[in-house]
Design brief:
Elements (H helix, E strand, L loop, with lengths): L2 H39 L6 H14 L9
């Protein structure tokens, strides 16, 4: 295979692994929401996909913009 093909396959593998890790971490968010928030504030439960989207939105809105310079 060519160098370009290997680079594309590596990029696709990295994107897929990041997505899978994000999906894995959506389960604790869903559990915490459904257990704590629903029982305290009587809101509706969320699904696994909604928890994933919630994590993405919080990541975008609360992302730190600090940069370290030497």
């Amino acid at each position: 295979m060519g160098e370009l093909t290997e680079s594309i396959l590596t990029l696709v593998a990295v994107i897929i692994s990041i997505a899978l890790w994000g999906l894995l971490f959506a389960f604790p968010v869903m559990w915490c929401w459904n257990y704590a928030v629903v029982s305290v504030f009587h809101l509706s439960q969320i699904t696994w996909g909604q928890a994933w989207c919630l994590m993405f939105l919080f990541g975008v809105f609360l992302k730190s913009s600090l940069s370290v310079t030497k």
